[in-house]
Backbone:
DNA sequence: TAACTTTGTAAGCTTTACTGACAAATCAGC
DNA sequence: GCTGATTTGTCAGTAAAGCTTACAAAGTTA
């Protein structure tokens, strides 16, 4: 059964070490780093004093003051008055991030039939929403529709625009080139550059599930430093953040887990093989299976959902063990995911991993009132433009 | 080692940053960063000129010169004479890392019965080896034996000691506390601190498989930026490096994959459950199964090894898909792993992952002539003390 | 031989954060 | 109520790091 020829093919594909532009850092870079540190602190901690910032960063009060005053004169942060509790010493003057300093344009291209978008302030609050019919458009048509949506949102933005953030299905490079976007038939499309050129503002494009993971990490106060988001929509997408950093993958395909085999004898998948994860937990398959087998039988319904949860748990068990993640978030139709599915995922993960791995583990279904994919798109902007993660 | 007291001055770059609250960075941090950048370049690229470094880092020739001259006066790098090819302009003066600037003490505590160690130079070349009978010692006894080994190695070191690096099985914090070391019955053992105190030099301790991953990334010129090492010895350990950074996990248990279930109906495992990965590809199980079922039957032997490879492939498929890794290295007894096992792992990974994931993927069996775990221990030191990764 | 290119260094400048000192505002104790 | 302790934030001056500009040295090319 050993086939050396197969192997030799493989040895040829030696992944050249992408000797990244390991840039040296200048005093200015240093300042930018510290600036981002302050913005990050204010974003997550809310109102704090200069002295608090000095303590938490290890920088001196003097340096913090200079940075804070710079940021204040740019309008990014503002004084919030005296701290009103009673303690020894001169009362602290609180500062906080001005959530209305900029508008962020976030766009979600992950749905089948429509493109949705929103204008957000820096806190992640949605200021305006827009939606446009994407139909089954592909190629340049789809690009133009997306650009049209961006334009409407830009017009609705009440403040200067910090940047455009776009979540899309597919394989996307860090500089926003869609290498493969199957649903819209996009290949090597420089989407970020297109948006940036047309609207004269920075644009960032990321895979939908990857962006969602970043979004959870950024906007969910309760999120861990490392986490995993499973995005169930047409397919199964996955996003991973490790120690606060989004994983993109050697060829930008991180999270492309929909076609991992879970059952060699399972249903035929669109990709030509059998028993892909997508064929078991993809929402289309799931809903049609529920409709077919258990239109009114609650017990059968639960069984099907538990089977699906078990499949996901089986796939995630090695991942959770490898990365020792504690935080798994599933996003998708809540009516399907809440309950039996959710419990089955956690139960399977518990049963199939070592205690030291699953002791701190939690599995949650994302609150659908928060549009995770959109927030992820916004998080791309926040991260790239202000260093807020 | 000549004089242990002088080792306290040995923090060449910076104290290992215990990532507490995010620290601000000072001009000095900046310089340390750039210093490490130069060392990293020289480590991987060999001999280059100051101008080359300026181009690759983006810093000016002036700044590079200052840094290079500092490093040279510390003895870390040295001038290597003029570049002897013929090109326009003044010939470049090459500089290179002095591999004999320091000795690194590396210790491998992962074997069942013995502790092995080596003295390495900065290039990873082994200068001396020591081995000590660890027997079935546990607790403080085992610690003392390990310290004894460290002492012998320190005595054999021809240069000042950059640091001690230790690879051990178990769950270990970044600051070198062994939280759980089952084989030696260690709990909350501050091993790094113990070594550091006794010998007056920095010490770093890491999980064996994790360290091996870092070792491959550091010393294997051919390794990718992100890679995965599977370590088959008593159990199954796994180490992951993503974008050059070692993944440690939320509770420092990253890579504890030995007890992921691969077959719910499989053999009973020591952990009390059935069908753990360890029971299928653990070398003990594998050798005893081969001895029992296929003492002379080559076909049956291949079958067993292929089954084992398939099991590993099934477990790795979700991991490889999630992280989009291209480089999987398996280390362990080469006679078992080379051939059917290896091909089966790759074949299974190909069959069970999406093409965009497995297109660049390669699976390799580690060259056993290079003691990966030891090199990993050395890489811990190189990374923490000099910023070389 | 002259022009051009590249390398490495020197002097002076700019930026950044640090140190030390100090005023302002509050609490704690007598 | 007053004094001392504590904390906050700012100012002036200092140290360090990298940058700009200029230049000599050493080679290739026309």
Residues:
């Amino acid at each position: 059964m050993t086939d050396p020829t197969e192997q030799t093919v493989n040895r040829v594909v030696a992944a050249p070490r992408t000797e990244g532009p390991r840039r040296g850092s200048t005093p200015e870079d240093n300042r930018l780093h510290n600036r981002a540190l302050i913005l990050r602190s204010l974003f997550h901690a809310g109102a704090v004093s200069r002295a608090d910032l000095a303590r938490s960063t290890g920088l001196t009060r003097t340096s913090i003051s200079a940075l804070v005053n710079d940021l204040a004169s740019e309008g990014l942060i503002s004084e919030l008055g005296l701290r009103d509790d009673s303690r020894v010493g001169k009362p602290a003057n609180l500062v906080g991030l001005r959530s209305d300093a900029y508008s962020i344009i976030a766009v979600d291209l992950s749905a089948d039939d429509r493109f949705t978008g929103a204008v957000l302030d820096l806190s992640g609050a949605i200021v305006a929403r827009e939606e446009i019919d994407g139909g089954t458009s592909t190629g340049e048509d789809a690009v133009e529709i997306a650009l049209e949506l961006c334009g409407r949102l830009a017009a609705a933005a009440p403040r200067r625009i910090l940047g455009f953030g776009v979540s899309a299905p597919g394989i996307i490079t860090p500089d926003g080139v869609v290498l493969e976007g199957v649903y819209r038939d996009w290949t090597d499309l420089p989407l970020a550059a297109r948006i940036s050129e047309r609207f004269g503002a920075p644009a960032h494009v990321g895979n939908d599930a990857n962006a969602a993971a970043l979004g959870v990490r950024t906007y969910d106060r309760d999120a861990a430093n490392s986490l995993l988001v499973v995005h169930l929509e047409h397919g199964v997408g996955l996003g991973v953040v490790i120690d606060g950093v989004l994983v993109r993958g050697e060829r930008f395909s991180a999270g492309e887990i929909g076609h991992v085999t879970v059952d060699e004898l399972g249903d035929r998948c669109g990709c030509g093989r059998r028993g892909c994860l997508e064929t078991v937990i993809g929402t289309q398959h799931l809903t049609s299976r529920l409709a077919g087998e258990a239109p009114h039988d609650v017990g059968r319904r639960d069984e099907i959902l538990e089977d699906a949860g078990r499949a996901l748990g089986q796939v995630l068990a090695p991942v959770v063990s490898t990365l020792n993640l504690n935080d798994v978030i599933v996003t998708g139709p809540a009516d399907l995911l809440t309950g039996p599915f959710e419990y089955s995922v956690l139960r399977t993960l518990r049963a199939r991993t070592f205690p030291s791995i699953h002791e701190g583990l939690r599995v949650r279904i994302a609150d659908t009132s928060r549009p995770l994919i959109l927030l992820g798109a916004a998080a791309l902007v926040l991260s790239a433009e202000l260093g807020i993660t």
User: Anything to note?
Assistant: The longest strand of chain A covers residues 126-133. Residues 24-28, 30, 49-51, 61-62, 64-65, 87-93 of chain A lie near DNA strand D (CB under 10 Å from a C1').
